[in-house]
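Hi V.,

Quick status before I head out on leave. The structure for the redesign project is tokenized and pasted below; the design run finished overnight.
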């Protein structure tokens, strides 16, 4: 068994930045390193492609 891991790749739906990662599964979230949008992994295809969707994040209003 090889120590090398196969990269996963997907495209941010907001800025079209190609995101490469390792060891993600459907349902996990990550931030796009380019635009910082929170993304959810909808699917990892057999070809190791990520299907990504933007996640709406509710931020607390701290009254500032």
């Amino acid at each position: 068994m090889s120590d090398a891991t196969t990269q996963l790749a997907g495209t941010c739906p907001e800025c079209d930045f190609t995101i490469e990662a390792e060891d993600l599964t459907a349902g996990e979230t990550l931030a796009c390193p380019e635009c910082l949008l929170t993304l959810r992994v909808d699917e990892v295809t057999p070809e190791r492609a990520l299907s990504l969707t933007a996640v709406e994040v509710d931020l607390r209003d701290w009254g500032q």
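Above is the designed sequence. The CA atoms of residues 10 and 19 lie 5 Å apart.

G. will cover questions while I'm gone.

Best,
W.
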